[in-house]
Every structure is written in C-alpha cells, then in structure tokens.
C-alpha cells in the first residue's frame, strides 16, 4: 500500500513538472463532476467531496455542483456533510464516472441544509465559517405558529432574547435583541435582511410560509459586513426559491388559531365597594368641589359621586342614596366588557406554493391569505403573493427576478378594557347596558346635569353610548407593499464571478378614520363650536354637520443597487473565497394627514371649515380654532458603502477570514464622512478533527473559532443636520411659527461596537450530542446620548444629541442537541443557554439617572458601572404604628420623605437611603425543547426560562388613585389599625395624599422582587402518514399538526406568583391551533 509520504512526493513532482508531465499523464486523468442534493432534492451547498487515495477535496458550491480531477482511477469518492449520512462510491464501479450526482440521506432529527449560512451578501458553509451564526430552517420555524415570522425565534435561536421593555427610541419596531443591548439612547433593533437587502417595511408583511430559513449573525466576523447598521446583530431571512432540474412541487398549508378570551378578572383591580368607599371619602372632604362649583358645572362625575351630590342637595333620600350606592358596589364593569366588547380571537391562514425548474429555468410562485377577528372584534385581512424566476439563458449567466407583495387591511373593533373613562378617571363599576341589553349612556366628559339642559334641545345629543358608539366609527388601516428585485450573475470561470443586484421597495400606509355624524366624538365637536343666537334662537354650526374624516397617508420608497465580484478558488490544499463590492441605498419616507368636516360617503362630499379664525366654544365661551389635522413630513436617508470579505482555507482545516466596510451617509456629520475609518473584522478557525493526529474516540467533529472586529449602530431618527418643526399659528400673533428641534452636529457619527468572540463546534462520536459554545465580549463607543448645551444660543433645549458614552457587554451562547433515543422511538432534546451582562463604562452626559433605577426599571439608566437597565429601591424600614412608611436617612429611621428623595437624587448609589438590586433585564435566558417521535407521530414542548433580574411589583399609590382612578388590590391589604404594621407593608390611606410618601413606598424594597421564572411556551403534536401511503396518493409529505401556545408560568421566584414579564397586565392570550401542511 502506498504510504502518505509517497503520495505527497508524487503530488509534489506532478506540480513542479508542470505542463510536460500534464501532457504525459493526460490520458490517466479522470474528471468527476456533478451535484450534491438531499433526498428531497434540495441543494446541499458546502458538502465536502473528496477522494480517499488521491487526497483531493472540494466543496459543493451554491448550486450544489462540485468538480474533481483524479490521477488514480481505482479510488473511493466520499461525500460528507454534517446532518447527513456519508456517501462512499468506488470510482471503478461507476457506470458513468464523468457526471456523478450524489444524493444524501439526512440523519435522524437533523434538518436539511442546516450547515449553510447566508449573510445577505454570500452563502457560507459551516465548515468554512469563522463567525458565530445561528440557523433556523423551515422545519424549526414551524414549531411556532402565528403571523409574525420573527416572533417564532422566541425560544428557538441562541443569543436572541425577547423582552417587554419599551425602549428609549421611537425607532424601535422589534421586541427582541441579539446578544443584549449595544446602545444607550439609540434603537436596539437588529437589522433585518430580506433576500439580500435591508427590509424597511412592516415585519408582519412577510408571509411565514414563504420563509425557507433565518440566519442570525451574532459576532463581528458574521455581521460586520453590514457595517454601520450591524451593531445590534443581523437577522437574515431567505425566502423559498425554485430549483433547477426539479419536477413541479406544490405546497399547501391551512390552519386555524383560536385564542382564549382575556381573563380580565385576573387583573389586580380594587373591588367596586372599596373604590366607592374611597370616592365617598373624597367627596366628603371636598375633593370634587372644584368641579361641582365651577360655573358652569359641566365636568362629568362618576355615577357614585353623582348620587352623593344628589343626596347632598336633598334631591334624593338617604335610603335612595344607600340603595343606589349598594347597587353600584355589587357591579364590576369587567362583566360588561367581557359580555359586549370581547370575544375569542380567531386567525385563519391559507397558503399555496408551486415551484420547480428545468435545465435553464427555475420558478417559485406562492400566495397566502390571512383572515382574523381579534379579541375586541377588530378585523384583519392580509394577502401575500410572491414570484421568483431564475433563468440561465447562456452558459455561466444567471438572471434572478423576484416580486413580493402584500395587501392588508385592519378595521377597528370595540372598546378595550378601561378605554372608557370618566373625565380621564378609571371607574370599575360602569354599566354599558341594562338588564335587557339596551344601551346605557355613560357620562365620560360632561355631566348630564349640564348636557340634559344645554342649548334647550337645539344641540345634538350630547350623551355617550359606548355600546352603540363604535358602530358609527369606521377606522381602517391599509398597507400595500411591494418588493421587486433583479439579480444578474456571471461566472467568468470556475472560480471568478460578478454579480449586480437591484431592489426597489415601496410601502404605502393609509389610515382612514371616519366618525359619522352620530358618533359621540363628532357630536361633541359639533356641539363644542355651535353658536345659538340668544335673541332669535338661530343655530350656527362653526363645525359643519356631518361626519369627521381623518386620513393619514405615508409612503416609504427604497432603492438599492449593489455590485460585487466573487471569488472561490481551489488549488492544491488551498481555497480562497470572498467578495468585494459597493452599494448605494436611497430611502425616502413621506407622510401627510388631513381632516375633513361635514363629510358624507353617499353622496360623496364634505363642507369647508375655517381653520384660520377663532370661534367661541359653547360651554366656556373661550375662543379656539377648529382642530386641523393637516401635517406633512419627509425623511431622506442615503447610504454609500464599499465592502469586502475574504476567507482563506488551508487543508480544509485552517481558516482565516477578514472583512472591511466603509459607510457614508447623510445621517452622519461632514467631519465623519470625510474620515476614512472602516468597520472591520478578522477571524480564525481550526477544524481539529481533520488533523492526522486527532483520534476520533470521543469527537467526530471539533472546530475552534475566534473573531474580533467592529460593527456600527445607527439610529435613523438622528441627524447631523438642524431640524425644525412647524407648529401652526401662534395664538397671540396669529403668525406661522416653527421650533428648532435639533441643532446640527457635524461630528455626529455612528455608534461603534467592538466584539471579541471565541467559540467551539462539536459532535460526539455516534452523533448523540452536538452543539456549539460561544463566549463573547462587546465594547461600545461613541454611543448616543444627551449632552449639556448652552440653550441661550438657540432657546429650545439645554441638551443636544452627541456621541457621549461607552459600554461593555459580556456573555455566552450555548446550543446543544442531544439524541437521547434513536430507534423506532426517538427522543431528542435541544437546549439553548444564554447569558448576557452589560454595564455603562463611561458617560459624559448630564447626571441624575438614579431616579430611573428607582422606577420600574423600564428605561435605560446610564450610570457608570451599572447595567443599562437597572433596578434600585429606597431602603425600607416598614410601617410605623400609624401606618406611615419609613425609610432611612443618614443611617437612621426617617419619615422625612422629601429629604430622603433629595438625598438619593443628589448622591445616587452613594446614598445610604437607597439599595441597588441588579439588572431589570434577564441576564440568563434559555429554553429546553424535547421532541418525541414514534412512527410518524411527534410530540414536542418548549420550556423557556429567564433568570438573573428584578422587577417592580405594581401596588397602590393614593395620589394616583385619587386623581386618575389607578387602582390595585393591595388597597385591601393596607394598614387600617394599630398592629397591622406587623402583617403588611401597604401604608395607610391618608387625605390629602402625600406624593413623596407614596413614592417612598412605590419604589421601596417592599415592591421589588426577583423576576426569575420558567414558562411553558408551547406544546406541538403532529402526525405524518407512512411514505408508502403517501406515494399511492401522489403526495410527497403530509403533516397534520396541533399547537397550544402561551401556556403560562410553571415556576416563579416571587412569593406572590406574579408574572414578571407582565406585572399588573394581561399576558399574551393562550392559543390553540390545528393545521395541515402537504407537498404534492
């Protein structure tokens, strides 16, 4: 047998001798070529193809093709790909050794294509990647259901954490982060890529059934190619495409999702009896006298207060008053809300896709329709269509044409819980119908003591009937979106190609809100500006009779052009692959809104209204202008970029990668654009299992990775230019006025995120356990934030946005797949374990953020050395024997609430009146998915956890209770008599309310709790009929499935059993799904 040393000598002599030897040995060469596909026909890019004796190897390219030249005729061709059974073929046994197509079977529980990543610029096989990626294919994404494709990442993608924080920036559209936060005052949203280009539209426009895979780019080596918009991570969405040489395939899907009614009675609301007792106390103390004694007295009072007033004015007897009050105490408005305004939400989803291809043409056509009724009877309809064609008109030339469209419409429903208030105050005992279901009026703005007599019957009905009012409002929101793209690729030779791509994206939103003449808001507006001549009784309508139509239209247009050169060169033991190119991007968003009065649909028309002059209002006689809704705006963003990304591979085991990108934009300042400072990355990888010395006793695959580089982050709401806003006419001068919102900052630049990552990918022998472990460290610089400014120079604000902060984030992502049992009965466990901790390193902006930590932990608190989202509390010393809360001041017990608050505001965490708890965002997240299979029947369930954080428990605040009706069941636990301080922390109710006293308790240790919890995300049950039965029916695959989602908590750390993600509010509704997927 020939030794390895002899083979190397022969290969060396062959290479040195050049053409002479080539001519002599030409007759002994054998060229092998073909495609590598899965059993279902999917291309397996990145599959390793090699000859055992010749030790020549290559990888299947994007179209699945490979090519090898052998000098040994009697050799063995082997094809390997993680997740598939290795294929071995003897060269001498091949009937047609020149063209060999390889078909690979997937290993149990492995999904096809799982080892090829897409960056939006190129596709990379996992074997040659140095970066940190997370890949989810169609099968994995289908473990979740719903209309939002990115919501399906929850609990399925490592490093991705969903949260309920509102965020600091109005630019935030998504509710999850990749590897935590990388910004302080900017948008934390990851960049979303759809079919190679950034997607600027509504995520809900994307049809989940069109998505083939999602790749999460997490570290610098993976994401920095996207430059100044990659600092928060990148989500790459690839839609389904047709395949060459494939027969026509038809995909059909249908499902129905039914949600439970919201459990309004689970909300921590005071009883009606307790609430009315509070109202009576306030009434007796004259709290409402300012409203009652006004001239005229027109402001609405709650039903109980109206009764108290009638009794005080001796218009009803004490017995009548007591009887009516007792009736109100027995009523809970949640009963009427559930009866008249809520229903079980239902979503229906239908999809149809057709794909296939010949030798020079491939196509994919799909359509989907969603129809739903929401829990408050709102309606939603959405239609998606997608066409993608690929042509190969001549050799080496490929043309891609794609068109993606969405048309959706949402229609208003009925009032949601607590939407109906009395003068802005929540009232828990409102009734909307009598015992026979007849609508009842609710005094929401004006007391019937005024409206019943105002205008002597010449005004429109001024009563509000919530049970009828929604019927006279037609509010719709329509979205029409389209994405069209063109790609042209030409392979100059087998290792060099050029590509040009163009994409046009357009989204139009139109909101139409028509409140007809009988809607309460319309009647109120008309009455407000109605004038009645006291002498003649003539009625003049300054606001024309008829409906009020408010329309808003926004349009986003985006154009992208990219040109790049691609290299993928194999020679001997080397491979060099990469891209270099440039792109330009132009996005403009404009909007306009308008209001029409006296509007009628049939016959179509409206009446002109005078928006210039002022008119006396009916109630108070003050002069006001008729509200006008005409607003227009325009945002323009331009980007110009140059980029490159290359990877060098030696002996299929040593990999070096590097990338660089330079961005310029009209968002950045002139001085920033003039500086040529690219964002870059570098990476290394070593596949140890391919070393000759490596014994595969434990591992069949072991690869080490490391990378370092810089990504950027841009908040599109920022600008280096001066921005003004027109504010209409000045009340005093009657001249048009404008305000400077932001001064120009020529030094404004993108936020810069440096990230170091080290990772390992492994598979144990026997394929029982596989996974990856990544440890990372991020450092953000030039982060956005407010900085003090001499406001006397322009008179608008004393701060302006600059690059003023630095932060650091550390963490790890662990993804494990265990095949516990792999026989007729199969059991697989997938575990995701994530940790992310962040803290502010430097902050040069104004101080005074300690108060943010003392709240609910819902805003960023840039305090050096602390997490971006933190929770702290006033130190708590319990209640005294009179029910007053006690804190600490200078180490002593104190009830000097103002002094305690001032001490904390001045000294921050140095104050001994405050205690720091920790992060208010989970630092440890993850999930555990178990899947059981037996003869086509499958059961899976997902347990998700969030550990390592604190949250603020909602409770009672008497100032809020008195002024706005904000209530809580803790009211019943309040201190009421001496000795209660031993059993409760809820202070006694005092009048008048003391805001600092409330604040000490609201933000004290008594209301802070650990947020650690585990919840059951979903349970899936599915069934696939046997293959022999499907083949008889002409079917490739059929899956019947059911799903239950949002099953709730199964363990929580706080003793009250509160849901830390939704404290004091309703969690997502539990949903039940049944559906069918079929392939013909």
UniProtKB/TrEMBL annotation:
The reply on keyword Membrane is yes
Q: Which domain of life is it from?
A: Bacteria
From the record, give the transmembrane residue ranges: none
- Intracellular or extracellular location(s): Cell outer membrane
| First-listed, main subcellular location of the protein, grouped into a coarse class | membrane
Gene3D superfamilies associated with the record: TonB-dependent receptor, beta-barrel domain, TonB-dependent receptor, plug domain
Describe its membrane topology. Answer: Multi-pass membrane protein
* InterPro entries, sorted: Beta-barrel_TonB_sf, CarboxyPept-like_regulatory, Plug_dom, Plug_dom_sf, TonB-dep_OMP_SusC/RagA, TonB-dep_OMP_SusC/RagA_CS, TonB-dep_rcpt-like
Q: Where is the TonB-dependent receptor plug domain?
A: 126-234
Q: Which UniProt keywords apply?
A: Cell outer membrane, Membrane, Transmembrane, Transmembrane beta strand, Transport
| Signal peptide (UniProt feature, chain positions) | none
Task: Decide whether keyword Membrane is in the record.
Answer: yes
GO cellular component annotations of the record: cell outer membrane
| Family, as annotated | Belongs to the TonB-dependent receptor family.
Supply the name of the protein: TonB-dependent receptor plug domain-containing protein
